[in-house]
Specification:
200 residues; alpha+beta; single chain; 22% strand
Length: 200
């Protein structure tokens, strides 16, 4: 085999992010036989999008996670995976995956709505909006959302690791470009800003 044929993609930043997220899920599944996964796309209402920067959305996400200690909707939340993305149609938004202890909570659509409403009304003070991916989870060809039982839902867990996590951890050149724009506008640097993270 020549050097040209070596799978160098295995060492990309994107795959390191995927490895971190996968390790988190496997660790939680080893400790808890039933997990409940909810996924949200959190963004901003159209009239506020143009004034949201990478610094703004990063602050809101940090606040969302830090507030879990004092909010009953996160009482049984074991961890999360998040990614910030920029798109022309909705500008900055975040893809979020929350992992709950499935022995204590069952209604994934309900919990996703509660977290989404908390984002929209409390964290962003009415400027935010959200999309509850769990509400239409049955439409996904490879669904890795909802309740996953370690002993019964092996294929579903495979969909979570094989399809949901790779989507959440993919890198976006446009996002990096817009982050740099924001930093230059504020005469600062975006070098320390992260577009992905997961709880440890």
């Amino acid at each position: 085999m020549t050097n040209a044929a070596l799978p160098t993609f295995e060492f990309s930043i994107e795959n390191n992010l995927l490895e971190s997220a996968t390790d988190l899920l496997k660790s939680l599944q080893a400790k808890h036989s039933r997990l409940m996964l909810i996924r949200l796309d959190c963004s901003f209402k159209e009239q506020y999008q143009s004034r949201i920067s990478i610094f703004t959305i990063s602050h809101y996400l940090k606040q969302l996670w830090n507030n879990r200690r004092h909010n009953s909707i996160f009482e049984h939340c074991l961890g999360w995976v998040w990614r910030i993305e920029y798109a022309a149609d909705c500008q900055y938004h975040a893809h979020l995956l929350f992992i709950y202890n499935g022995h204590h909570v069952q209604s994934d659509v309900y919990y996703a709505d509660r977290v989404g409403e908390y984002w929209a009304n409390r964290i962003t003070r009415g400027e935010g909006s959200y999309y509850n991916c769990n509400r239409n989870k049955d439409n996904y060809a490879f669904c890795g959302l909802g309740t996953i039982d370690r002993n019964k839902d092996i294929e579903k867990f495979g969909h979570l690791v094989g399809y949901v996590l790779p989507y959440l951890t993919k890198e976006s050149p446009l996002t990096r470009e817009m982050m740099q724009r924001d930093a230059e506008a504020l005469n600062t640097s975006a070098s320390g800003m992260r577009t992905f993270g997961c709880s440890c």
